[in-house]
UniProtKB/TrEMBL annotation:
Name this protein carries in UniProt: ABC transporter transmembrane domain-containing protein
Chain ranges passing through the membrane: 21-44, 64-89, 132-151, 157-176, 251-269, 281-302
Domain ABC transporter, residue spans: 336-571
Gene3D superfamilies, per the entry: ABC transporter type 1, transmembrane domain, P-loop containing nucleotide triphosphate hydrolases
Pfam family, one: ABC_tran
Keyword terms, alphabetized: ATP-binding, Membrane, Nucleotide-binding, Transmembrane, Transmembrane helix
CDD domains: ABC_6TM_TmrB_like (cd18541)
Length: 583
């Protein structure tokens, strides 16, 4: 149950002074707090015995007021220290989690769905942070305050009465232990269900257009209703188990009060205790209500924190299983060489790249074409280090590609993927993302190269136009050209366009290709595409089929070979001609 606190020991150690001051202030406040009933008891005894006078009244009043003021200040100090620490823990854990996510590649995100990662990064981390704030408060109340009260009751009133009143509370520990384990299990099940709901909601939002197009709104509403009802049942199960703690504590507490009153009355009748002692003792018992009840809350907080910690650690310490141990700093891109290179995804039943032999000289343009699933994107991913290295030779210049530090390689590459990731910001912000110190002039130049000038003119706010989440407010072609502009502004050593021209017309496509050739002379460019017109000007074109290179050469050479490339090119030419005639 306390494993979550043990796992947070490094955090507590880093913030030892903050927590030390807070806990010391809490302990002193507890001591001062339990002195108050003692003063009240003496006050009552003075009234009963007739010893009360003006001087004694002022003395007791000043003592009482002083204790209240000091306790108030101490409570503020420890409260601020504990809860500020909890928020600091949240910040640090979320920052650590985000840094971990940013370092991970595709295999990692195949293990965990987005909604699940969000749930663990928000709700679970919040539950953990509560143990560093409210949990520490409850822990001190359940232990330190209770111990202080018991000692004060024994010393200032009667040890025999104290023992008689406290013994009935001991069996409560067994109930807390058994039900605590059940809370742990039920809470983890509920959190998994919450993650699942998160996943499906995100998918529903992303696929809203498709859902509406197929008139499936009612089906998704019903599915969501069923999921939330299931989540409600699981959360109710947590509440059901948790609810037994309060009544159980109160039952044992009531038994303790009955014993204290009964036995205390006997001691007063015998003259062993005074009326003031009994009043003070009952006040002590009243002060024990919160610490005793807090035992159940402590169990809940620690159990939930432990369950959340396991969930957070699962994603925090899980990796993408990719190890790039290269130490060489890549300062420029050299010739790229594949020799008898073979690669297979872990989940694939067939070889995805089979015996690839390919040389791409620095500064040349390579076209990669082939049927869907032929291995075009898989080949590109080798350059991006998105998956483990395959078998065979993959060199940059005279050294293995894996000898170079991964971050230094990625800094030299500009990548435009098939799925265009745009941010819910302005056109300016999305393009400037590719270059840290980009000026408006740089942005407009990249826009011109990506043939986005006319589109920008039609936007009311120009560069300041917000494009919506994932570019929802612009067309597919506009998304592609903003993505291309973002890559071009980086002016990378290697530019990779992975089927990034599919949503633009043939004329715009040719303009973009010509612009790229003009500004990227001497730099390497790789274009993967289904539209063969996009690679006509490439220095070399390879045709992939089932992960193998089945054709290789320039456009003219492949046309002369009259293989798959020739057939596909002629079909696309005829299709484009018919579309132009139709216009």
């Amino acid at each position: 149950m306390f494993d979550v606190l043990i796992k947070l020991k490094d955090f507590f150690k880093e913030n030892k002074w903050q927590y030390s001051i807070a806990l010391v202030c809490m302990a002193i406040a507890n001591i001062f707090g339990v002195i108050i009933p003692y003063i009240i008891g003496r006050f009552i005894d003075a009234i009963v015995t007739g010893e009360m006078d003006r001087s004694l009244l002022i003395t007791y009043s000043l003592q009482f007021l002083g204790l209240v003021l000091v306790t108030y200040v101490l409570d503020f100090i420890w409260g601020y220290g504990l809860f500020a620490g909890a928020f600091k823990l949240q910040k640090e854990m979320r920052s650590t989690m985000m840094r971990h996510f940013l370092r991970m590649r595709a295999p990692y995100f195949e293990k965990f769905r987005t909604g699940d990662l969000m749930a663990r990064s928000t709700q679970d981390i919040r539950a953990i942070s509560e143990t560093a704030g409210y949990g520490m408060l409850v822990l001190m109340s359940a232990t330190g305050m209770t111990a202080t009260l018991v000692v004060m009751m024994g010393i200032s009133v009667s040890w025999s009465l104290t023992i008689a009143a406290v013994v009935p509370l001991l069996p409560m520990a067994y109930v807390v232990k058994v039900k605590g384990a059940q809370v742990d299990e039920a809470y983890e099940i509920a959190q998994k269900s919450f993650s699942s709901v998160n996943d499906d909601v995100l998918e529903m939002i992303d696929g809203m257009r498709v859902i509406r197009a197929y008139v499936k709104e009612a089906d998704f509403i019903q599915t969501f209703k069923n999921q939330t009802e299931d989540l409600l049942k699981k959360n109710n199960r947590v509440s059901e188990i948790s609810a037994i703690f309060g009544p159980t504590v109160k039952a044992f507490e009531g038994l303790s009060i009955i014993i204290a009153l009964s036995y205390g009355s006997i001691l007063v009748a015998r003259g062993t205790l005074s009326v003031g002692d009994i009043v003070a003792f009952q006040m002590y018992l009243g002060m024990m209500i919160w610490p005793i009840i807090s035992v159940s809350e402590l169990v809940l907080i620690l159990r939930q924190g432990s369950a959340s910690m396991r969930r957070v650690e699962e994603v925090r310490y899980s990796t993408d299983d990719l190890e790039f141990k290269g130490e060489e700093e890549a300062k420029a891109i050299d010739d790229l060489l594949f020799n008898e290179f073979t690669f297979k995804y872990t989940s694939s039943e067939t070889t995805n790249l089979d015996n690839i032999d390919l040389t791409l000289p620095k500064g040349k343009m390579l076209g990669i074409v082939g049927k869907t699933g032929a291995g075009k994107t898989t080949l590109i991913r080798q350059l991006l280090n998105q998956f483990p290295q395959g078998v065979g030779t993959f060199n940059m210049g005279s050294r293995a590609y894996s000898d170079y530090r991964d971050p230094s390689l990625r800094r030299l590459i500009g990548y435009v993927p098939q799925d265009h990731v745009l941010f819910s910001r302005s056109v300016r912000d999305n393009i400037a993302f590719g270059k840290k110190d980009a000026t408006d002039e740089d942005i407009l130049t990249s826009i011109r190269l990506a043939s986005f000038e006319d589109d920008l003119k039609n936007m009311e706010k120009g560069l300041d136009t917000l494009i919506g989440e994932k570019g929802v407010s612009i067309s597919g072609g506009q998304k592609q050209r903003i993505s291309i502009a973002r890559a071009l502004i980086k002016n990378p050593e290697v530019l990779i366009l992975d089927d990034s021209l599919s949503a633009v017309d043939a004329k715009t496509e040719q303009n973009i290709i010509k612009n790229i050739q003009h500004v990227r002379e001497g730099k390497t460019t790789i274009i993967s595409t289904h539209r063969l017109s996009a690679v006509k000007e490439a220095d070399e074109i390879i045709v992939l089929d089932s992960g193998r290179i089945v054709e290789k050469g320039t456009h003219d050479e492949l046309i002369q070979n009259q293989g798959w490339y020739y057939e596909q090119f002629m079909k696309q030419e005829i299709k484009d001609s018919l579309e132009e005639e139709g216009e």
